Amino acid sequence: MKNGALHDHLHSKSNVEKGSSFINSWKVRIKISLDAARGIEYLHNYAVPPIIHRDIKSSNILLDSNWAARVSDFGLSLMGQEEDRDYQPTKAAGTVGYIDPEYYGLNVLTAKSDVYGLGVVLLELLTGKRAIFNGGEPMSVVDYAVPAIMAGEVGRVLDGRVGQPEGSEGDAVDQVAYTAMHCVHLEGKDRPTMNDIVANLERALALCEDSHGSISSGPISIVAD
């Protein structure tokens, strides 16, 4: 992909120091979130058979020449059974910081495991922090951001390279933050479905469009390996 991985734009040394990346706007970050969510929604609900990715993370979200986000790297993915696709006993696999704690503890894979990984990516986009970062000692972006979101203090943990959102853009960022918080619930049953996540992110992007004018969203966001 021409513009590389989302992870590099968020966390590469040059972007951290210069704050020069194209993605340093809330509108673009929310569009990237929506593109990625639509790709995962397709895997869960429209692929035949359904697919659970198992390794949703910012380095597996690639950006094309139009900055549309595409979900990539299906090396750990598993095919679901159409009649009972949600529960699969399987040894936990994935990446530290993104792996669903319920899946890791119980070795039971569900589509909600991908939801957890996406929630971590949303928190990366909001905070600019890595999934696991060193804040004096190793800390997860979930532990860093969720308490502030729960307290209604989203602005306290937002990525300073983008700046504080105002007006309807602030409402859009709040929408993404609360969606992310629900995605990373410890128990899968308490997490939203991909349909719900896509709907929330569509509303968030619409709020940004009200604030800044329209921005086109990409087609279905999948990259075949």
Automatic annotation (TrEMBL):
SUPFAM superfamilies for this protein: Protein kinase-like (PK-like) (SSF56112)
EC number: 2.7.11.1
Listed GO CC annotations: membrane
Keyword tags: ATP-binding, Glycoprotein, Kinase, Membrane, Nucleotide-binding, Serine/threonine-protein kinase, Signal, Transferase, Transmembrane, Transmembrane helix
Family annotation (Pfam families): PK_Tyr_Ser-Thr (PF07714)
Tree of life domain: Eukaryota
Membrane topology: Single-pass membrane protein
Compartmental location: Membrane
Glycoprotein as UniProt keyword: yes
Top class in the EC scheme: transferase
Bilayer-crossing regions: none
Broad class of where this protein is predominantly found: membrane
Catalytic activity line of the entry: L-seryl-[protein] + ATP = O-phospho-L-seryl-[protein] + ADP + H(+); L-threonyl-[protein] + ATP = O-phospho-L-threonyl-[protein] + ADP + H(+)
Domain Protein kinase stretches: 1-205
Gene Ontology molecular-function annotations: ATP binding; protein serine/threonine kinase activity
Family matches, as PANTHER family: SERINE/THREONINE-PROTEIN KINASE-LIKE PROTEIN CCR4, SERINE_THREONINE-PROTEIN KINASE-LIKE PROTEIN CCR3-RELATED
Protein name: non-specific serine/threonine protein kinase
Biological source species: Salvia splendens (Scarlet sage)
Lineage summary: Eukaryota, Viridiplantae, Streptophyta, Embryophyta, Tracheophyta
